[in-house]
Amino acid sequence: MRVAIAQFTANLDPGVNREEVRKLTADAASGGAELVVFPEAAARDFGRPGEPLAPVAEPLDGPFFGTLEHLAGKHRLVMVAGMLESIPGDSRVYNTVIAVGPDGGLLGAYRKLHLFDAFGYRESATIRPGGGDTLVFPHGDLRFGVLTCYDLRFPELARELVDQGAEVLLVPAAWVHGPLKEDHWMTLARARAIENTSYLMGSGQVGNNYCGRSLVVDPLGVAIAALGDRPGVAVAEISAERVVEARDRVPSLRHRRFSVRLREEPPG
Fold it and tell me: Which residue in 58, 69, 85, 149 is the catalytic one?
């Protein structure tokens, strides 16, 4: 299966962002991709730290979903991308990733569990954590599980998705620049792939405060596609056979002796 990572700079104009998604989706489709992953907050960037997000958030079935619905059906591929989802009657929003199938139907939504209250940021001031529902969906002969950005630092969530059958981990991100941050992104991406003998596709925003460095890692930790710090698309070939081969060679999932559980309430 051919898959793509797409990165760009999302700004504060949702219409401009939707147009950029259209262009990059066409590029991915021209490369034969059956699935394309876009960054976190692709529908509209977060703006300045602490800026209220409820006035600019969209419902799950709003204009951004409508664009993905149209493009997925037009190009016959799966689209995965991040948005700020409005919550009726709430001053905070969900940081949500939606997956849309090649028929234009919603495959599911994942609301970010681990909020970025680190490195001087406080995502929880404007964003509500998800309730614990995860997103794993099939496409072709593979199963895909979704994380978002800061979730990458929590191996338990990736392992839970793999326990649900995921063979490819999808990570829309807006990974913030900072000392060693780019190294953290690439190291953690390879670690999550290696320890789960799974593919990982990470797609990050570029420009503004973000480092880009989108990549596809195979189940043994080899980067098979990558982008730098400029907007663009990269296509890679992945297969269920490669996952089976890796898990036969390194049967760590069978050898493990611990399991993990979700806390009923987030810490804080």
Answer: 149
